[in-house]
């Protein structure tokens, strides 16, 4: 597969260091969350990282061989393959199914023996599987950005009172167990998504 270089015009912006009290994550930042056209072809420099976010559209797994998934890029209509080559590939891919996201840390495209292009997973620690589609990820990210812009990021999500406690996993804030119980039906399906977005928001990507 021939690599091509795309010139990117970088807009000047203020650098904000990672912070729990500030939410500035931009899913469309092509340096941090590149689509296939902008994925680096070289390994990351020390301290540098990125995530390739893809949505599973079809399961092409071969029984007794390895898990294989057809995925769609952040660019609608751009499809690639993700293949697991890990030691325990079926266990590592157990949460992968159509309608979910495979997020690959420092993913770099390659061409497989059958001529298809995509991503080879050798290390399960480089993969996060999120139980949502790309559209939902964008909606939740925008919701967090909006709460920050309105000065509500550090308040209870159920009643907007200032608080210091939160969900043990994703740190969503609640002022009381009552508010947490009331919000649980809404919160449970997106807890892992919120946890991942908050972690990305606090990451120094180099």
Structure, explained:
There is one protein chain. With 206 residues, the chain is an alpha+beta fold. The chain is 20% helix and 17% strand. It is built from four helices and seven strands. The protein has a seven-stranded mixed sheet with strand order 5-6-3-2-1-4-7. A hairpin with a 6-residue loop joins strand 2 and strand 3 (79-84). The longest helix has 16 residues, at 134-149. The protein is globular.
Report the mean per-residue pLDDT as an integer.
89
Distance between the termini: 27 Å
Q: How many helical stretches?
A: 4
- Provide the structure class: alpha+beta
Low-confidence stretches: 1-13
Shape: globular
Radius of gyration: 18 Å
The profile of the biggest β sheet is:
7 strands, mixed
Helix-strand pattern: EEEHEEEEHHH
User: What is the beta-strand fraction?
Assistant: 15-25%
**What order do the strands of the largest sheet run in, or round the barrel if closed?**
5-6-3-2-1-4-7
The number of E-state strands comes to 7
User: Percentage of helical residues?
Assistant: 10-25%
